[in-house]
Amino acid sequence: MRARKYFEHVASWRVVIPLLALQVTGTNSPAGPGIALTHASVIDVGRGKARDDQTILISGDRVLKVGKTSRVQLPAETTVIDATGKYVIPGLWDMHVHGSAIPYFSELYIANGVTGVRDMFTPMDRIQSERKAIQGGKPGPRIVAAGRIVDGPKPYWPGSVSAKDAEEGRKAVQTVKEEGSDFVKVYSLLPREAFFAIAKEAKRLGLAFAGHVPESVSAAEASDAGQRSIEHLTGVLTGCSKSETDLLHTDQSLPRVQRIAAQIQVQLDTYDEQKAHALFVRFRRNHTWQCPTLTVLHNIAWLNEGGLSADPRLRYLPPEAVGFWDPKRDMRFTNAPASFWVNMQKAERKCQEVVGKMRAAGVEFLAGTDVLNPYCFPGFSLHDELARLVDAGLTPREALQAATLNPARYLQRERDLGSVNSGRFADLVVLDANPLQDIHNTTKIRAVIANGLFYDRDSLDKLLSEAETGAKSQAKIEEPP
Q1: What is the pTM of this model?
Q2: SS (H, E, C) 218-251
Q3: Measured between alpha carbons, how far is 367 from 403 in angstroms, rounded to an integer?
Q4: CB of 426 within 8 A of CB of 91?
Q5: CB-based contacts of 279: which residues, under 8 Å, 6+ apart?
Q6: Which of 42, 77, 466, 473 is the most core-located residue (most Cβ within 10 A)?
Q7: pLDDT in tens, 34-79
Q8: What is the rounded distance in angstroms from the CA atom of residue 202 to the CA atom of residue 216?
Q9: What is the distance between the alpha carbons of residues 371 and 380, in angstroms, rounded to a whole number?
Q10: CA dihedral sign of residues 91, 291, 381, 45
Q11: What span, in angstroms and rounded, lies between the C-alpha atoms of 341 and 33?
C-alpha cells in the first residue's frame, strides 16, 4: 500500500528553485535579435548523416535558417556562438514518463537535453500549472499528457477513471477530454467491452489512445482497434505464443506476482516465430508504435539483486521516493517468489530479442523510460534507453530517431519538431561527439537550446546543482495509516 500512497502524493510535490539569471555566456534567456550557432556539424537524423560547417540561425523560439556558414547572412546584433567541432541534434523526447508536475524534474530534463516528454499519468490541472511556469521562462520540456489513466472497475492506481462496460468506457473518454487530456491512456484491467468502446469514442472525438494492452484483449486486437502505441511490450509475448488463448484466460484469482511468473514461463516455452512475425507485420501495417521502455524492464527484472542502489544519480531524487523502489515496500512485488525474479530476468532478455526482430520487420519505435519507476531517472535514463535500443539491434541512427524524428511523426508535428531545419522549434542539443558513431555520445552535452532559450555547460551544471539541492530539501511523504 505504500507505493499507492507514493503515487497519490508524488504529483503534488513542490520545491522552490530560483530561475537562473545569467548573461550571454551561460544564459537561459532569449538572445535579443537572434542567436547563431556557427561552424557546427548538424545531424540529419532522417538520413543518418552529418552536415558539416553549418550555421543555425535562431529567432525567438524558432529556427530561422540552417545552411553553410559561408552562405548564411547574420542580422546585426546577432549573438554568435562558435560551434566548431560540435554536433547538433534535435531536442530529445522521453515518450513515457510520470511526475512531470514535480518542479525540479523539469530542470533535470533540460540538463540532459530532453526538451519534450509524454506524461502518462498526472492530473491535468498539475500539468497545466507546470506548462504555464515553463512558458513563463522556467527551464522545462514541452509536455504532451494523458492526464488520468482509464482502467477497469477496480483500477490498479488511485485516481484513475474507471470503466466496467461500454457505456462507462465512452463516458471515460469524454471525461478525460473535458479535463484537457491530449490523448487517452488505457490500462491493464479494462474489460473487453469497455476497451473497444473507448477505441471507437476516442476516434469519434479525434483523440489518440495509447497505453497498456489490457489483459482481456490480444495485442493484435488492440492494434486493429487503432491503439496508437503499446507501452512496455504489454501483450506482445502473449501474442507471440502458441498458447495465446490460454494465456488470455489465466486464472485471475492467483496472486499477481505468481500469475505473472507462471505466464512468463508459458510465454517463453511456447514462443512461436511465425506467430511473432505475423504480429509484427500487423503492427507495421497498422502503424502501431512500440514504446518498449527497456530501461524499466531491466531495472525491475534485477530489482531484488540490490546492485542498482549504488547509482550516483540517486542524489537527484528525494530519499523517500527512492525508498519506494525497495521491492519489499512496493505493493507490486511484495511476497514475490524466487521464480518471479528468475522469470522476469528471462523475460527481459527475450524482450531485447523481440525488439530486434520487430526492428527487422519494420515496426516503428519510440524511446521512453517510465520515469518514477525503479531507477528510471528524469532526463538521465533517456540516454540509458537509447543505449539499450542499440543493444537490442537498432542502429545508433534508428535509436536517435526514436527520441527525435519518431516522436514528431507520432505526434503528427513534423513541421515543428524532430529535425534541425528552418521553421522548427528551437529545441536543440549541442554535443561534443557524433552520436551516429556511438549512441553513448548523446550524453556528451555541451549546450542545450530549449524553446529558444540557450543553456551552456555552466548553466546546465547549475540546473543539476539546483535539482540536487531540491531533492535533499524535499519534505518526507506521509506514510498511509
Answers
A1: 0.92
A2: CHHHHHHCCCCEEECCCCHHHHCECCHHHHCCCC
A3: 5
A4: no
A5: 219, 220, 236, 239, 240
A6: 42
A7: 999 999 999 999 999 999 999 999 999 999 999 999 999 999 889 9
A8: 19
A9: 10
A10: negative
A11: 57
**Virtual torsion, Cα 346, 351, 354, 360, nearest 10 deg:** -130
> How many C-beta atoms lie closer than 10 Å to residue 44's C-beta?
17
Residues 259, 251 contacting (CB under 8 angstroms)? yes
Whole-angstrom distance, CA of residue 214 vs CA of residue 186: 8
pLDDT tens digit string along 292-327?
999 999 999 999 988 899 999 999 998 877 888 988
Distance CA 5, CA 8 (A): 5
**β-strands 289-291, 428-431: how paired?**
unpaired
Instruction: Go through the chain and tell me how many residues it has.
Output: 481
For residue 26, CA distances in Å to 112, 141, 342, 445, 451 come to 16, 19, 48, 14, 16
Q: Are strands 87-90 and 92-97 parallel, antiparallel or unpaired?
A: unpaired
Q: How far apart are CA 133 and CA 128, in angstroms?
A: 9
3-state secondary structure (DSSP) of residue 36:
strand
Phi, then psi, of 62 in degrees rounded to 5: -125, 150
Q: How many helices (H) and strands (E) does the chain have?
A: 17, 17
C-alpha cell read off for 382? 533517456
